[in-house]
Write a structure and sequence with these properties.
By secondary structure, this protein is an alpha/beta fold. Helices cover 32% and strands 16% of the residues. The chain has one domain. A 4-stranded mixed β-sheet has the order 1-2-3-4, with no helix packed on it. Strand 1, helix 1 and strand 2 form a beta-alpha-beta unit. The chain starts with 22 loop residues before the first strand and ends with a helix. The C terminus is likely disordered.
Length: 151
């Protein structure tokens, strides 16, 4: 079966994208992912989401090294927005040193979040210590350059 390549001469010729059935946003509690989350909450249809945000799931994979200030700000300002809009918020952590053996621990799965969990059974910090790896805290944050320009 051959595939045909569609060539468009102008933006007006592009077909409207099909709406997603479910969108998952990984919220790392930092400035960049929080800004993206707030944009989605404020203008869901502008980003291909349903107006009621029923098709959005926000997930945080906890490292066990969350900054206390980030947790406080998230609980004070962002969780009330998630509650008000009834957005599904899932918090997970590793179940142990080996994901293959221990799996993933679901700390919370709710549309009425009140707390940001700061640890699970196994943390990234424990993993780093076990492997003798030191996390980097300085330097350029190049992983988010393209993301922030899209929103």
């Amino acid at each position: 079966m051959s595939r045909q390549l569609a060539l468009f001469q102008s933006a007006n010729e592009f077909p409207e994208p099909e709406p997603c059935r479910q969108t998952v946003l990984c919220w790392g509690l930092g400035a960049d992912s929080t800004a993206i989350l707030i944009r989605l909450l404020e203008e869901p249809t502008a980003h291909g989401l349903r107006p009621d945000l029923a098709d959005l799931t926000v997930i945080t994979s906890l490292t066990g090294m969350e900054w206390p200030n980030s947790v406080d700000l998230a609980e004070r300002y962002v969780l009330p927005l998630l509650r008000a809009k009834q957005v599904r918020y899932v918090q997970i952590a590793r179940g142990g040193a080996s994901i293959a053996k221990s799996g993933i621990e679901v700390l919370s799965d709710t549309r009425n979040p009140t707390v940001v969990h700061t640890s699970g059974r196994w943390s990234l910090l424990q993993d780093l210590r076990l492997s003798g790896t030191i996390p980097m805290y300085g330097g350029a944050r190049l992983w988010c350059v393209n993301c922030t320009n899209r929103f």
